[in-house]
Predict the 3D structure of the following.
Amino acid sequence: MRIPGALYAARGRKPQNEKDVPFQEILPLRLKNTVSGKADSGSDVACLQEMGVLFACLKDNEFVEKYCHKEISQFQKCYKFYMDRKFEAKQTVNQGIVQPGNNLNYKQLNKYMRRFPNPQ
Amino acid sequence: MSMYPSHFAEPSLKKETNRSSASHIPVKAATNDLSDSIFYGELKNKLIKYITKKGNKSLARELLTETFETIKRTQIERLILAGTEKENIIIDSEQLLKNAIENARPLLQLSAIKRGGVKYQVPVPVTEKKSYFLAMKWLLDAAREKDRKVHLPEKLAWEILDAACGQGRVIKKKNDLHRQCESNRAYAHYRWS
Amino acid sequence: MFRKQFGNLSRVSTHLSRNVLAARVASREAEMSTNAAPAEAATAPPVVNEFRTGVGNPGEHSEVQIGKFYTIPMQEKKQIFSGGGLPKQYEQQIKTFTEACLMVRSPALELLNYIKRADLSKPVVRYVLYGDNGVGKTLSMAHVLHYGMLNDFLLVHVPWAPNWMKRPKESANSASQEGFIDLPFDAAAWLVHFKTQNSKLLERLQLKTSKEYVWSKRESTPAGSSLIELVEHGIARIKYASETTAALISELKQLATAGQCKIMVAIDGYNAFFHPITRIFSDNKQRVSPDRITLTQPFLDITNYDWTNGVCILSVDKIAMTEGYMESYLPRYLLGKEGFEHLDPFVPVHVGNYTEKEFTSYIKYYLDRHWISKTQPGFEEQLKFMSNMNPYTLMQLVRGL
């Protein structure tokens, strides 16, 4: 006589014997004491709109820069502003002053976590 | 990398330096190509460094002097031939060099960026320093691409005169680069640097 | 870093309009291919200001004109210096400035004074110009040569004697003298130079040869033929050019002694005739000393004192020597014992660096010709310091400014 499959399903499958499959700890089972700074670098695409305007102007004037003076200076100003800000940001990160608050960069976080490491 | 710690100040070229206010700041030693002569020019100095091959800087200096001489001779000849409109002709060869480099500076540059296994030529803005470097490099490249019999100063003088007028191969090269950037503008958002 | 320099210089504000540019490029092609400088200055009347003098005749120059420029008319310049005689860079400068200007300097004036007062019936006086490198010995000589040409001297001018010892065009064994070396091309070139300098005067004076010269079985120049014929024979038959030179010079000496003409001998780099090291090699690969070169003898002969009605202007130069023999610019060192004894009673004329007045005058001239375009305050002082008021160094320094 055939036993319907539904009966087995109710009981479930027999669990594995733990002795047969010993646990392997491939990575340590706790968090690292550091975070990487990758996420902080942010998007590098800057001045896209200015570039578009510049391209349009250059194309209209057959790439003679003389007639696109305004666009060029705006584009360069934008890029310079962006680079300056990036430089400043890097500067502040490198200073690494720890201040209270929840908006911390990776260096500050790392400093905190070095003070309170995970127990071994 | 500099051998000096970051708080060292750059050496000053002025004869009288007001050091009383900043006497506690240490100063880097002056390099041997700096000079407080009134004929010293930073741009000229930079170009000499680019011309130099195998460390033979005295030869490079001589070549640039000869270039300036050739430029001056041509401009004086033009001045004599010009007749009425003499104001338009610049004889100062260093000024002409500056004009040439200003005219040859690129705004954008293409850099290869790999996305999804494909390399895209992405237009990227250039920094000021790099644009000067590129302008001078192109001028020199154009001058070096010549017949063996033509002397470098002669060709370089022509390239500088051409570029100062806004024509010639260097300006064309810059415009070509801009054109390419324009045709690749769709990839602009791939940029990461 | 560059922002300092370029702050006010906008990259696109080329102040030149496009039309002007196009026209200029078109004209540039023509200019550069010919490199011709228009000779408009040749016809213009002489300008007189603080650094120029209107006195064009070197015979009239005096202390008043020291440090001032006088213009040699282009035609006369062509006649005297087309075969050499001005330094190459000075020639270039003349072309760029479209005028041949020489500065009146005291060594040349001193020489002119001596020449004007000399008694030509006495044996020739030898004047030796000496001085350090690049002080203007050759140009002082050029000034005197101009005087000689205007005052009906026959010019026997060797633009740069070491050329024969250092870079001869061709050397051949002499046919007439055993063990001697001929420099046929150089001799012919010198004859051409002599002809361009003196053809007008020779035509006027109608000088004749005194004896017959037999070159070969078929060729000879009969006695009583004119000197021009002799010179032309030498130019046409290059093989006999050296011998023609010797014949010409001995003829000239005789004619001058007889009082038919007066001669100005000017030899630049005279000490090369006494310097044993040359770059000429004989058949057995041995260096030939200058006394074994046929071209040397006539010029040594004409600098001897055994003739009258002439002047000898010689210059001794360090760079006429070879390496290792350039320690001093004094005549005794450069000429050596033999040369010094050959010339012995001679009048030394020292050529020195610019004086203060000459220096400022030169700077003004350069500024007038647009040759110096960097005129920050104090540039004169700096040039003075860097060049030590040496004419050649100044010329080199000013090139790139």
